[in-house]
Amino acid sequence: MTGPLVVLGATGSIGTQTLEVADKLGLEVSALAARKPSAELADLAGRYPDAAVAVAGGAGEERAHFTASVSNEVDFGPEAVLAVAGLPGCTVMNGIVGAAGLRATVAALEVGNRVGLANKESLVAGGDVVKRALASGGGSLIPVDSEHSALLQCLEGESRDGVARLILTASGGPFRGLTREDMAEVTPDEALRHPTWDMGRRITIDSATLFNKGLEVIEAHHLFDVDYDRIEIVVHPQSILHSAVEFVDGSWKGHIGYPDMRIPIQYALTAPQRMPTPTEQFSIVGLDLTFEEPDRENFPALDIAFEAGRQGGSTPAVMNAADEIAVEAFLHGRLGFLGIPEMVSRTIDSVEWRRPETVDDVVQVDREAREVAASLIASVC
Ligand SMILES: NC(=O)c1ccc[n+]([C@@H]2O[C@H](COP(=O)([O-])OP(=O)(O)OC[C@H]3O[C@@H](n4cnc5c(N)ncnc54)[C@H](OP(=O)(O)O)[C@@H]3O)[C@@H](O)[C@H]2O)c1
Predict the structure, then answer these.
(1) Phi/psi at 328 (5° precision)
(2) Which of 5, 76, 79, 185 gets the most CB atoms within 10 Å of its CB?
């Protein structure tokens, strides 16, 4: 790891697991960031009294109460989050959910930091912008998604010319095997019951629609410079094979292990070094692993995402923003489950395509897509 650790999205699923791994490795935590001045964040601040704390949101009174409840140095507003992301010489774990994480990724990379990227939305919405910041800052970008961590490790030491295909595995989510008719009435509680992974709410719903896999396809395209025709999805309900690479000579390399995010989180912090596992020892004995084609008809999110990736420019950012809005509407009972891909498609059709050149351009696209998606959803409520 390079320098002390900054944890963005510290109160979330990735953030708390990162802190658990960091404690076990004895790493110094220099800053924590989250959206709300919550009791959870105040607890974490108490556990790391030397860490600076950045809080993106919150109103006047809440902020004052938070500051009074902790002894740490505290700063508020989105700029405060960017300031800790851009502390030079740090390793930054970006566990923020949504396109809100993009500016922080860019701020961290521009000063040459090492970034552990859980926030896949950074690459989906602003892939070219992020890659430019990586190149100009001279830092590093290490994926945290278990699939991309797996691919990175499979590709280590390999020539890119030798790669035939990337095979991303998908659990299939809680509704694998259901038809659209079966899914018409599913509730948020049912969609939040993921069979193998315990994660934040947005990614869990995205795993049920398969939009999460779609986002990951675009993330893989940017991370590994592989075109969309050579990225394939295979449904593997046990989530033991995290992903695989097929090489031109017919050889495959796959990465297997527990479906436990602490493993790719630790790898993102220590790579290329390996440290003792944060989990129990894994054994392959007795496992019954199955693989099947994804059901593209009943889960249209996959083809929407492949098409968005191929269109490039603003489309992936529009798709992500629309999905964030649609997932929120579903969770609040304002949209049915099948309405999520429908609203995403309609938003993509309604927002004019362009090529975002800067972070501000991407943020503008994201904002416009959110407005369009919200009004389309309001019109069907
Ligand atoms: N969870 C997993 O196992 C997993 C696996 C692979 C990839 N990922 C990716 O990792 C990211 C985080 O997922 P998660 O499951 O950890 O989400 P989560 O549990 O919902 O946590 C999200 C975190 O982001 C913070 N946050 C939200 N908006 C923010 C803002 N504008 N500025 C600063 N902090 C902000 C939240 O703070 P508050 O608590 O104050 O709202 C919270 O700490 C997502 O991109 C997801 O796709 C997650």
Answers:
(1) -60, -45
(2) 5
Which position has the token pair 């396809």?
217
**For ligand 1, atom 34: residue with the closest CA:** 34
pTM: 0.97
**8 Å CB contact between 268 and 93:** yes
Per-residue pLDDT of the chain (381 residues; tens, 9 = 90+): 678 999 999 999 999 999 999 999 999 999 999 999 999 999 999 999 999 999 999 999 999 999 999 999 999 999 999 999 999 999 999 999 999 999 999 999 999 999 999 999 999 999 999 999 999 999 999 999 999 999 999 999 999 999 999 999 999 999 999 999 999 999 999 999 988 878 999 999 999 999 999 999 999 999 999 999 999 999 999 999 999 999 999 999 999 999 999 999 999 999 999 999 999 999 999 999 999 999 999 999 999 999 999 999 999 999 999 999 999 999 999 999 999 999 999 999 999 999 999 999 999 999 999 999 999 999 987
Atom of ligand 1 nearest to the CA of 121: 45
Atom of ligand 1 nearest to the CA of 203: 47
Could you give the maximum distance between any two Cα atoms of the chain, in Å? 63
**Residue with CA nearest ligand 1 atom 15:** 200
